Structures are given as C-alpha cells and as structure tokens.
Amino acid sequence: RYGEGARVAVGLARRAAQESMVLLKNENDLLPLKSVRTVAVIGPLAADKANQLGSWAAQGRAEDVITPLEAIKAKLSGAQVLYAKGVDIPSFEHEPPANTAGAPAPTTATGVAAAGTQAGPTGIRDAVQAARKADVTILFLGELAQMTGEASSRASLTFPGRQQDLLQQVIATG
Questions:
Q1: 135, 102 in Cβ contact below 8 A?
Q2: How crowded is residue 40: how many other Cβ atoms within 10 Å of its Cβ?
Q3: Is the peptide bond prior to 32 cis by the omega test (within 30 degrees of 0)?
Q4: What pLDDT score does 164 carry?
Q5: What's the confidence (pLDDT) of residue 111?
C-alpha cells in the first residue's frame, strides 16, 4: 500500500515516539507490565481509531491505526484484558459555549471522516467494575481530534464531558 519512503517515515516516527517518552514515576517497578493477569483498559479513546490520528491527519487513514486497546491485547496476550469505554466525549455542539473557541473543524478536514469507534460497555459504573477486577488499570482520556487545530481549539484545559468524573471514580477503586 505504501512506498518505501512512507515505510521509512513511519519507522522514524515510531522510533522518535519511543525515544521521547518520559516515565515520571515507576512505583514498585510496575513497568514494563510482565506478570499481570488482568488489565482494565478504560476510556473513550482506548478503542477509537479516528481520534488517534489527531487534527492534522492529512492522508492518515483510521483503518491503519492500531488503537491502545488493540496494542495492549497484542502485547499482553497472556492476560485478560477488560475494556470499558466509560463515557463519550461530547462534540463542541454539546459543550457549554464558555469551553470552546470557535467552531469545530469539519471531520473531512481531519482526514477521519466516517471512521467509527469500537463498541464496548459504556458507563462509569462499568468502568469502575472493570477497574476493581483488574490487577492494573490504564486510562485513555482526552479530546476529539476536531477539538484542536485551526479555528477549533478549546479554551479550557479540562477534560471534555464527564471524563474527570470517570478518572476520579476509577482512581477511587485503589
């Protein structure tokens, strides 16, 4: 599908991403995950292909994206992976005007038009139950690709929607 130049570029981008990650704290040598039996993968972006591309996707294709959920299942094939979406991320149209700066970019501008997300259990209660059953919980929170970029950045640094509630209730499970 891609030429040699694209393969080289993807390889360089992957290497740059790996080398630029910073671990702030590795309490009790939790990482890398090795002998974990059950992992809860929680959040509206865990299984979302389209929004992994971001607002400057250009020719990026959602079908080429490996989601965090897919990657964790592949890397921890011996573990039980529990998935809960938890909450949806509301689009600009559903947020109070004070949290927006401009209109959202059309999905065609992000290169992710008509790309869906994987279905899974929804609701904070489902996410909390998954976290309670797991040895380790990993959350994937943030904003939609259309919430950044020209004429569509948000004016607030808070999580859109009920993601903060989701985070706090999952943390409360210990």
A1: no
A2: 25
A3: yes
A4: 95
A5: 41
Tell me, rounded to whole angstroms, the distance of Cα 129 from its chain centroid. 20
Cα 73 from Cα 75, distance rounded (Å): 6
Question: Which of 129, 124, 138 minimizes the C-alpha distance to 85?
Answer: 124
Q: In this predicted model, what pLDDT tens digit does every residue of 153-170 receive, in sequence order?
A: 777 888 999 999 999 999
3-state SS, residue 144? coil
Reported as type and span, the H/E element at residue 163 is helix 163-171
User: CA 77 to CA 65: how far, in whole Å?
Assistant: 19
Asked if 82 and 39 touch (Cβ cutoff 8 Å), the reply is yes
DSSP string, 72-123: HHHHTTTSEEEEE-B-PPPPGGGS-GGGBSSPPPPHHHHT-TT--B----BS
Joined together, the tokens standing for residue 64 give 């080429």
Token couple for 145: 């690709």
Nearest CA to 83 out of 95, 74, 73 is that of 73
**84-136 pLDDT per residue, tens:** 999 999 886 544 444 434 444 444 444 444 344 444 556 999 999 999 999 99
For residue 34, name the pLDDT band (cuts at 50, 70, 90): confident
| Mean pLDDT, rounded, for 38-42 | 97
46, 83 in Cβ contact below 8 A? yes
